[in-house]
């Protein structure tokens, strides 16, 4: 299971919303975090979120032990199973 944690603040809501558009992705909550998870990769397009670069690069709260970030640039965030 690929899992990404994003702090639930207004600036990051668009990340969870865009991730949820993928039918393979599920959004949950753990404490003050969105828990974004899927059986395979999670890919979020920055432009689709409308996030500015500063918010984009600071949005990640963490990843689960069995996940790794393979792309985090101005275009997209990609988290894959480790």
Helix percentage: 10-25%
CATH class bucket: Alpha Beta
Strand content: over 45%
Order of H and E elements: EHEEEHHEEE
Q: Order the strands across the largest sheet as they lie in space.
A: 2-3-1-5
The CATH architecture can be named as Alpha-Beta Complex
CATH fold-type name: Phenol Hydroxylase P2 Protein
Explain this structure:
- This protein is an alpha+beta fold and 82 residues long.
- It contains three helices and seven strands.
- 30% of the residues are buried.
- The mean pLDDT is 96.
Sum up the structure in keywords.
82 residues, alpha+beta, Phenol Hydroxylase P2 Protein, three-stranded antiparallel beta sheet, four-stranded antiparallel beta sheet, 3 helices, 22% helix
List the helices and strands and how they pair.
Elements: E1 2-7, H1 13-20, E2 25-30, E3 33-38, E4 42-45, H2 46-49, H3 53-58, E5 60-63, E6 67-72, E7 76-81
Antiparallel strand pairs: 1-3, 1-5, 2-3, 4-7, 6-7
């Amino acid at each position: 299971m690929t899992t990404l944690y994003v702090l639930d603040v207004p600036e990051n809501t668009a990340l969870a919303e865009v991730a949820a558009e993928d039918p393979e992705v599920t959004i949950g909550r753990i404490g003050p975090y969105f828990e974004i998870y899927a059986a395979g990769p999670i890919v979020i397009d920055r432009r689709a979120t409308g996030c500015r670069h500063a918010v984009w690069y600071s949005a990640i709260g963490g990843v689960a032990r069995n996940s790794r970030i393979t792309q985090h640039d101005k275009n997209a965030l990609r988290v894959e199973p480790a």
